[in-house]
Amino acid sequence: MSMNTQGRPTRSEAPADPGGYQDTFSGSRGLDQAEPLLFERGSTDTTGVDLPEPKGTKTRLGGLDRTAEIGLPGLSEPETMRHYVRLSRKNYAIDLGLYPLGSCTMKHNPRLNEKVARMPGFADVHPLQPQATVQGAFELMGELAHWLMTLTGTPCVAMSPKAGAHGELCGMMAIRAALDTRGESGRRRVLVPESAHGTNPATAVQCGFTTDEIPADATGRVDMAALKDKLGDDIAGIMLTNPNTCGLFERDIIEIADLIHEAGGYFYCDGANFNAIVGRVRPGDLGIDAMHINLHKTFSTPHGGGGPGSGPTVFSDALAPFVPVPYVVKDGKGWKMVEHVADAEGEPFGRMTAFHGQMGMFTRALTYMMSHGSDGLRAASGDAVLNANYILARLKGAMSPAFEGVCMHEALFNDNFLKDTGVTTLDFAKAMIDEGYHPMTMYFPLVVHGAMLIEPTETESKDGLDRFCDVMLALTEAAKAGEADRFKAAPVHAPAKRLDETQAARNPVLRWTKD
C-alpha cells in the first residue's frame, strides 16, 4: 500500500473498478463526454484559422523571428468551443452543488454583484488614469473603507493588500515598524496558537520574526496557562485566528489581548473567519491591533485562487501611523489618492503594491454590503453559524465531533467513528466524490486526528443541507457495515479515478510530449 509523508494511505494496490468511461465504446457516458487533451485531438499539420501573408511590412524582431513550427494543434471553432465546454463540466463549482470545503469558504457570489462590477466606469477603470477622472472609483473605495472600519470598530484600514496572506503581511509589517520606532527591535518573538491558520507562522517568519507555538486546551481553544508561561520582554505580539480553525470562538480573547499589551506586544487577529461574527462582534472592541479581512469569505467576492483577490487590513490607533500607502482621502476639492510616503500622515512602513487595490473586488463587496444592509449582514453571519450547527446536530450521532458543544461557522469531526472499519478520512472523502460532492477539508487542522472540517456557509438551504447530511450518514453506515472495498475503489464515477496523490505531487506531468 502506497503511503505519503504523513503516513496515511493514498490508494490501494488492488486495482480499482474502472467504472467511468471504460464501460462504453465511445468513452463517453450519456451527456458526460470523454475529452482528451487538445494536442491529442488536433493536428499540428492543420489550423483552424487562415491568415494571409502580410505584404509591404518589415520585421522589427531583430533576427528573433520564429523559424520552427509553432507546434499548436489546429481545431475548428466548434471543436475548440466544445473542448472547453466539456472541460468545464468536469469542474465542481458552487453553482453545481454544496461546497463543504472549510477554511476557504467557496460561497455563492450574487449575480447582482457581477452586474454592478461590469458597469461602465467600474469595469473599465485604469490605475494610471488622472485622479480627476476616477472620482467615483475613489468614492467607492472610501465608502467601502468606511464600512470595513465601522464593522470592525477600528479607525484605519489599508485597502491595497491583494489577498488574505498579503493582508497578514501588511499587519505584521506595521507591527514590526511600530516596534522599531519604539526602539525595541529586539522584540521578535510572535506567539502562534495551534488553532491559527497555517499562513500565520509563515507570514511572521517572512517579516523576520520567530514563532512560538501555543498548544490548545481540551476545548480546542488557546491554553491560557501555556500562553502566560510564554510571555516575556521579547514578545512582539500574537497571531490569533478568531473564530479559530477548529470553528470555535476564543472565549478568552479580551484577556489574551490585555496580556499581550501588558507584555508590550501587539495583537494581530486573522480575520479570515470574520464571516461568522460580522454584524455581531466588532474585533476592535476585543482589543485587536490589526486584522485582515477576506472579502471573498465575508462579503461574497469571487475567491482569489491566485487571481483578483483582496485582503484589506484594519488597524487600531496604536498602529494607524504605520499604515502603508496608497490610500484615498477626501478634502474640500473631492477625493484624492495619497501615493507617496512623504505626502502621508504618520510614518507609513512603505508601499506593498504597484497600484491601489482590486477595483472589481471592492465593487462587489460594497454591493453585497449595501444590498444586505446592517441587519442583513448580521443575519448572514447568524445563518452561517446556524447551518454549521445544523450539520453538527444531524451528524454527531453517527460521526465523531472533535469537541463538545456548539460550533461557529464550521463543524469539525475526527476519524474516531471510522475506527476498525478499514476506511480512512481520505477514503471517505473519495467516496463523497462518487456521491456528487466536493470533499470537505481533510486532515486539517492538524490538532485533530483525521480531521474533517465542514463549512456550509450561510447560502445553503435546509433542503440542501439535509441532502448532504443524508449522504454523509449513508456513507458512515456503509463504512461501519464493513463495505471498505467501495471506499478503497472510490471514486469510480469521476473523470479521473483513484490516483497515487503522493506520486502525482512529487512527479507531476506538466507538459504534453508527443509519443
TrEMBL record:
The keyword Oxidoreductase applies. Residues 381-485 form the Glycine dehydrogenase C-terminal domain. One of its GO terms (molecular function) is glycine dehydrogenase (decarboxylating) activity. It is an enzyme of class 1 (oxidoreductase). It holds the Pfam family GcvP2_C. InterPro entries: Aminotrans_V_dom, GDC-P_C, GDC_P, PyrdxlP-dep_Trfase, PyrdxlP-dep_Trfase_major, PyrdxlP-dep_Trfase_small. It catalyses: N(6)-[(R)-lipoyl]-L-lysyl-[glycine-cleavage complex H protein] + glycine + H(+) = N(6)-[(R)-S(8)-aminomethyldihydrolipoyl]-L-lysyl-[glycine-cleavage complex H protein] + CO2. Residues 1-62 are annotated as: Disordered. Gene3D superfamilies: 6.20.440.10, Aspartate Aminotransferase, domain 1, Type I PLP-dependent aspartate aminotransferase-like (Major domain). Its EC number is 1.4.4.2. Keywords: Oxidoreductase, Pyridoxal phosphate. Residues 196-304 form the Aminotransferase class V domain. The keyword Metal-binding does not apply. The glycine cleavage system catalyzes the degradation of glycine. The P protein binds the alpha-amino group of glycine through its pyridoxal phosphate cofactor; CO(2) is released and the remaining methylamine moiety is then transferred to the lipoamide cofactor of the H protein. This is glycine dehydrogenase (aminomethyl-transferring). It comes from Hyphobacterium marinum.
